[in-house]
Amino acid sequence: MHAAKPLFDYPKYWAECFGPAPFLPMSREEMDLLGWDSCDVIIVTGDAYVDHPSFGMAIIGRLLEAQGFRVGIISQPDWQSKDDFMKLGEPNLFFGVAAGNMDSMINRYTADRKARSDDAYTAGGMAGKRPDRASMVYSQRCREAYKGVPIVLGGIEASLRRIAHYDYWQDKVRHSILMDAKADILLYGNAERAIVEVAQRLSAGEPIQAITDVRGTAFVRRDTPEGWFEIDSTRIDRPGRIDKIINPYVNTQDLDACAIEQAKGAPDDPNEARPVELLPHPRLTRERTVIRLPSFEKVKSDAVLYAHANRVLHLETNPGNARALVQRHGEQDVWLNAPPIPLTTEEMDYVFGLPYARVPHPAYNGEKIPAYEMIRFSVNIMRGCFGGCTFCSITEHEGRIIQNRSEESILREIEEIRDKVPGFTGVISDLGGPTANMYRIACKSPEIEAACRKPSCVYPGICDNLNTDHSALIQLYRDARALPGVKKILIASGLRYDLAVESPEYVRELVTHHVGGYLKIAPEHTERGPLDKMMKPGIGTYDRFKKMFEKFSKEAGKEQYLIPYFIAAHPGTRDEDMMNLALWLKRNGFRADQVQAFYPSPMATATAMYHSGRNPLRKVTYKSESVTIVKGERQRRLHKAFLRYHDPKNWPLLREALKAMGRSDLIGPGKHQLIPATQPAGDGTYQSARRKNSTPAGSKKLGKPLLTQHNGLPPRASDGAKPWSKGEEGKAQAFAKGRKKPAGKRPGAR
């Protein structure tokens, strides 16, 4: 893998003389106190500003500050006008725009497309502080506020929508968000390398349009530039016209070489033996190769081509061998450079060692921010995940190569929490990351790692080249809990139990010292069909881990329990699979309180299955394997009902389904039967287990719609257009709720 310039090797910008701010300023008054006349960079985010390394805007802001730039924060602005976007003045270099730590649509809507009543990333948990498709709306307002200022788009919402993607909420394929937001450049992944390089080059006077060679970025261009070799992957392979076999070493874009090859053996004696002539190919390298995906127009109208494009994208995610991708959108190309080089341990320590205040900005006056309350005593020890679960977006965003912090850096952060964070009682709530036990686990060979194109290191089994040694993590646990003032270290991150069983000593250490009575793990299902589509291990591995867990809990003299998580309605899941899972739950005495239905997040492999009915884990053709898809509301309700087989409200639906499946034998009072034949007193209607956080079942009311210029906001006075009347505004609101389309478009509306 190519070496990258270290984050700390750049020359500092002149504004370094101001030093670090206690908090990145959110107002002109704070800027005045810091002695700033302007900001070099302004970050616009859909989250409340918490100066903590678990929040993306804090990491990017502090990193740019360490480069010498003056960074301001506009948090959860009023998007209905440009005024809030002007409150810090015009940035000297660029606006950095992000929807927040979550995709704004996932943040606001449940898997049943019902509006949530809260927002964990907002002070007081209040919903409605950010618009739908926040990256697009914020970018538009930034452009209105200061037309000539570059807009750099980032965060997970932009990262997962960087190409044409299926949008679950509109049930259609949308453009790359770069096109819809009309930003100048998009940074995908964690983006520390890219943001530093972009900022440094802009500060040196380079125009944003010229920055086209930074890894981990996407931008718009007209055509493939000279010097690039383009691979056409716009169609699915199928039999067609058979061309004459030519010398495979010839670059077919090199017309002179092609002419030489075509001339061979033609005149005189066609049977004359000729030596193979190796021609130089200066352009035929992975670094100068781009793969052309099917265009937006094609993947929008052809779901199988969409699955094919998704497969190609996921094959090009290893930074050691990935090639650039390009996708046509109308008359323009969206160009995606290869993924960024992962951060080294030294760079991870640098990023997490920046001077974070570790608390929310004082502007919130102590009002609780639920997401912060959950993580304020936790420590992130690594990034990335090589599990490759198809329903998860971690790999698409953070990559599958694990980026580790040093033990010294982690212990230093624990001491900071102990000494600086208000309310610390001696308990670290989590020592983990995307996966709790992938710390310092990697391929045995850097050469193999750089060449590998497998989507997972642990499916269908653990790769022989994967080092599963947990000793570094065990030592970290021991040293962390030995720190003065630390009473308990809990592990709350998801545990990859198929890795854990390879290290019984790790399981012993975990169970003996780091479980607070319950440990959550995620087998996700019991049946092979859906598990294969998830790329998850079989339930037998869970049973092995369960035996270890119970054995070591008993040895430690502790009564502890496993809490397994399961997914309903995942692609590849039949009604019979959910029935078998429900029977397994009953046999093992599990009663799920909250259940998780499959949520098709943008760009995930399982989302491509959901949309196309094909399996992108294998070669995609029009005749390739079809995948069972659960789309209808009733069937999704049924699959969730099987997970909550013990809830009387679900029994009428389950009885009806079991009879239709020919399994009436499972209805009755016996231990081997799933549900009783009689209904207790009550109406027996279905209601979501998450009543507090979702719209009541059967209700169409989503509360006050978050109107934007993209879904029906009346034109602003600044547009020079006449405001809408109440009747017209009502039509717009109806349109925003999806009930009725306005008859005409108002002047100034977009």
TrEMBL record:
SMART domains: Elp3 (SM00729)
Keyword Kinase: no
CC cofactor note: Binds 1 [4Fe-4S] cluster. The cluster is coordinated with 3 cysteines and an exchangeable S-adenosyl-L-methionine.
Residue positions binding [4Fe-4S] cluster: 385, 389, 392
Annotated keywords: 4Fe-4S, Iron, Iron-sulfur, Metal-binding, S-adenosyl-L-methionine
UniProt feature, compositional bias: Basic residues: 737-750
Single Gene Ontology MF annotation: 4 iron, 4 sulfur cluster binding
Statement: the UniProt record of this protein carries the keyword 4Fe-4S: yes
Domain Radical SAM core, chain residue ranges per copy: 371-647
Cofactor: [4Fe-4S] cluster
Family, as annotated: Belongs to the UPF0313 family.
Matching NCBIfam families: SAM_YgiQ
Protein name: Uncharacterized radical SAM protein YgiQ
Species assigned in the record: Geopseudomonas guangdongensis
